[in-house]
Structure prediction request, 675 residues.
Amino acid sequence: MKILHLFDDLMNLYGEYANILVLERCLTELGHTVELRKAKAGEALSFSQYDLIFMGAGTERKQKLALEALRPYAGDLKAAYEAGKILLFTGNSFPLLGKRITDSNGKVFEGLELFPFESTEGSRRILGDCLGSCDLTTEPVVGFMNKCSKITGVHTPLFHLSMGFGNDTDKGPEGLWEKNCFATHMTGPLLTKNPALLRHLLTLLTASPVTTLPLPHLEQAYEVTRKALEERKA
Amino acid sequence: MRKFLAILICRILTVVGKLMGKGTSLPGGFALKVCPDILRRIQKPPVIIAVTGSNGKTSTVEMIASVLKAGGKTIAYNAEGSNQIEGVTTMILNSCTWSGKMKQDILLIESDERYAKFTFKWFHPTHYVMTNLYRDQLTRNAHPEWVFHAIEESVFPDTKLLLNADDPQLSLFGQDRDNVVWFGLEHNQYDSEIFHGAYHDGAVCPRCGKTMEYDYYHYNHIGKFSCPSCGLKRQDTAYSVTDLNLEESRIVINGKDTISLAFRSIYNIYNILATYAVCHEVGIPGEVAAQVMSNYILKNGRLISFTLGEHPGTFLISKHENSVSYDMSFRYAVMEKKPCTVVVIVDAVSRKYFTSETSWLWDIHFDWLEDPCVKQVYLCGKYCNDLALRLSFSQVSPGKIRVFPDIDAACEELRNKGSEQVYAVTCFSDRMKFLSNVTVK
Ligand SMILES: [Zn+2]
Prediction:
């Protein structure tokens, strides 16, 4: 099993590296050998040999650095996506997959163009806990939003939020799900907070149903946060 | 007339607020409604010192106030930590004459990082101290670069900056600027050539984004950095801790002034150094600052001693959503080298607002607790499972770890068992949930 963690030194906010930790731990416990590569910006990249490609959240400035570092490989990334590789892009790495990003000064950055959506940054921060549903699981999803952009032009969202700000509306559709590409602004980290999503990704990766996780505290932590958010919403 | 009315309203509301036990920002808020430019209209002292940064503002301001007073200066300052424009306005209007003149020698302001731009829109500090800039309350503050840009809007050319030279992000404020005074720690025996921390916010240059190099780290990403690509580097300091001995609890500043430490934390040493620097800049001799700060016990008492059954204990106040403060507390606990139990409590993430956000736990360097002197680690409170999950990915051996949703039950078990030192590490918000179970000395 080969995993690529893109730019872990640049895109290192909100503990997102833990997405990879839990994946790696679970895969190992399931008997797989995991080969993890952490790639720095500027290193030569190719995506075809990886089963899962991940990038997390960073500052707005570092997000642009990540974009430039990925730009030469946009075609290769798109090919990996079309070949059915799993892409997990969380936080503000999500907008990189779109057509363009406009920053708060109006400066336009061409995106990697895997999808036709656009992202527009503002000077106001959008912050808050999130609760929602997801067609991949029957359990509610939980997390946190810490972003400054709105995204328009996504037709296949990953989540439907009942608490928190979606792609471009409060309590609206959030993220993007196409084939095996899962992109969301929701942090948490996503897979440490949502056992059902973790099981789903493990099932996809191992091509056999994963119903239990070797991380008992993860399930219990999820229950605590889900209850807290549902009480808050009520 | 508006000015007088604003002062009057502020003072009446302050008296009423005191009777009702309310905070100190409301009177200033009303005064600002009556007279929005009141802060410009007040005649302020010739010296205005502002202090901002992620950690240590309140402690630093408290020590600056003590040193200035000992140096014979009269001052006005926001002692109660109401550090947004409303709180600052309350303090100023309660410290001036009815005609709006401040007669003190010095105005000293603790300023919130993100809101300093609103206060200093109306007047500029003469001296602006910045202690550090790191991940703190990201559920409100977004990230340190976001905060950097917020502070940037409060920095003007006529202000002398006093900057922590060891903090790369903060050092950007002093680039291409003449009126800047740097302070920092010299190379000392506690430095590490290896980075310790769960994340490295100095891994890439804050100016050009290329990989940075470090000669050594004092803690986390604080240290002697340089960027081979753009040349950003730690600047030489006018105020330096030239000798540091934590075992003997003392530091020496600029090779001449020795200060005994009441709290042996590297953290606090920066606050002391910043205080020394700014007080010296406004004419207080180093000896006076050193004397006042020797064995200085801070009001907010970062250290509380207690007993729990046969256990002697120390309460180390940290801040939730602030990983560096946890790293510091753990580092302090293992530095004492006593066989110990460390109790970590995360029950309410904040006392001020709702959130279930726990990603900051992944930013804490729990590996400190794998030190052999730590015999047990108790993880307690509502978010004990998040803690347990996090620690299962640390170096801490699972055999050491006990998980308790119920804080009282954890304390009960400890009370009936053993006599080793206990360190309790948590936030203000969860403090009493632990302290109500112990005997505070
Ligand atoms: Zn550089």
User: Anything to note?
Assistant: The radius of gyration of chain A is 17 Å. Chain A has a mean pLDDT of 97. Chain A touches chain B at residues 9-10, 12-18, 21-22, 25, 40-41, 59-62, 65, 125, 127-129, 142, 144, 146, 148, 187-189, 192, 215, 217-218, 220-221, 224-225, 228-229, 232 (CB under 8 Å).
